[in-house]
């Protein structure tokens, strides 16, 4: 198999004339270049139109001896980074003579696979090479899933330590990311479940084993299951956040209730002494010690008694 990273009209015409299978991996082609390439490879006008516009849903469209397979690849990033573009749309034009992969941005996994093919000495079937390209694109989601697992665990620990606005924003960000990933993976899973035989039956492709594409389907099922489990974990983070905030509010409310309860008898005592102040200073509160003993003393005894009562009931401790 020949590997091309730029298209040369004469070379492609020669390869097609000799029916030598080749892979062209092109990045960031303009609309005019894609149309010219489509004319050179005799691609269907609808397939060319889809590749010019991009923004397609994962699908597999067959046009006679050629087919267009639209896939979404995962763009991995570290958990601490905010990745605004977690997906890369890749158009795979398939035929018995070639496979062309078009994408707007560089896709490192395909670059690595090209290097691997260049150093591969064992002869493989054309269908195997198609499988490897598709498999590399699908498997690009696994590093993202590994990062998500670590990030969700860190988020749970952060919420338990102290739920704040940062943790709430991170929870919603993960929810949105999981939704984006699932919208990309589920249609690919459905394509491989129903229509992948179209690739195996393309005229000109050497017949090999359908187990290759079944392996890709198994990977997509695994990715979908992990995304569903992560979605449940993030939903659990939301419940944990709400529970932590409610517990914190309950603890604050309890403390305020204790303070209000302690000040209730104090308010009664100050009100009682205040309303009878003239009679008290003439008959009872004679001298400074009487004032401190009956005035301040009764309030101190009342506050201390209330505190001891709450402590014995276990209301002054931390529920955690």
TrEMBL record:
<comment type="similarity">
    <text>Belongs to the CorA metal ion transporter (MIT) (TC 1.A.35) family.</text>
</comment>
<keyword id="KW-0472">Membrane</keyword>
<feature type="transmembrane region" description="Helical">
    <location>
        <begin position="256"/>
        <end position="277"/>
    </location>
</feature>
<keyword id="KW-1133">Transmembrane helix</keyword>
<keyword id="KW-0813">Transport</keyword>
<dbReference type="InterPro" id="IPR002523">
    <property type="entry name" value="MgTranspt_CorA/ZnTranspt_ZntB"/>
</dbReference>
<dbReference type="InterPro" id="IPR045861">
    <property type="entry name" value="CorA_cytoplasmic_dom"/>
</dbReference>
<feature type="transmembrane region" description="Helical">
    <location>
        <begin position="289"/>
        <end position="310"/>
    </location>
</feature>
<dbReference type="InterPro" id="IPR045863">
    <property type="entry name" value="CorA_TM1_TM2"/>
</dbReference>
<keyword id="KW-1003">Cell membrane</keyword>
<keyword id="KW-0812">Transmembrane</keyword>
<dbReference type="Pfam" id="PF01544">
    <property type="entry name" value="CorA"/>
</dbReference>
<protein>
    <submittedName>
        <fullName>Magnesium transporter CorA family protein</fullName>
    </submittedName>
</protein>
């Amino acid at each position: 198999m020949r590997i091309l990273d730029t298209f040369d009209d004469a070379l492609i015409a020669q390869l097609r004339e000799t029916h030598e299978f080749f892979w062209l991996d092109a990045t960031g082609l303009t609309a005019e270049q894609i149309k010219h390439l489509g004319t050179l490879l005799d691609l269907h006008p609808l397939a060319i139109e889809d590749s010019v516009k991009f923004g397609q849903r994962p699908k597999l469209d067959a046009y006679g001896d050629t087919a267009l397979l639209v896939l979404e690849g995962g763009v991995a990033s570290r958990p601490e980074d905010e990745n605004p573009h977690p997906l890369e749309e890749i158009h795979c034009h398939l035929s018995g003579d070639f496979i062309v992969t078009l994408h707007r941005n560089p896709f490192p996994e395909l670059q690595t696979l090209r290097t691997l093919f260049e150093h591969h000495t064992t002869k493989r079937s054309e269908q195997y090479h198609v499988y490897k390209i598709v498999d590399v694109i699908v498997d690009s989601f696994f590093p993202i899933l590994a990062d998500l697992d670590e990030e969700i665990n860190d988020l749970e620990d952060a919420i338990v330590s102290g739920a704040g606005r940062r943790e709430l924003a991170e929870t919603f960000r993960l929810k949105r990311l999981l939704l984006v990933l699932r919208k990309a993976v589920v249609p690919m899973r459905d394509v491989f479940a129903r229509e992948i035989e179209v690739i195996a039956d393309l005229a000109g492709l050497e017949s090999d084993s359908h187990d290759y594409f079944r392996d890709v389907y198994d990977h997509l099922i695994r990715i979908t299951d992990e995304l569903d489990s992560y979605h449940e974990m993030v939903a659990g983070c939301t419940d944990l956040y709400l529970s932590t905030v409610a517990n914190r509010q309950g603890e604050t409310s309890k403390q305020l209730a204790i303070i209000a309860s302690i000040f209730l008898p104090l308010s009664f005592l100050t009100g009682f002494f205040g309303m009878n102040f003239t009679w008290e200073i003439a008959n009872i509160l004679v001298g400074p010690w009487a004032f401190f003993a009956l005035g301040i003393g009764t309030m101190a005894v009342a506050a201390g008694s209330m505190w001891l009562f709450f402590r014995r009931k276990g209301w002054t401790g931390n529920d955690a």
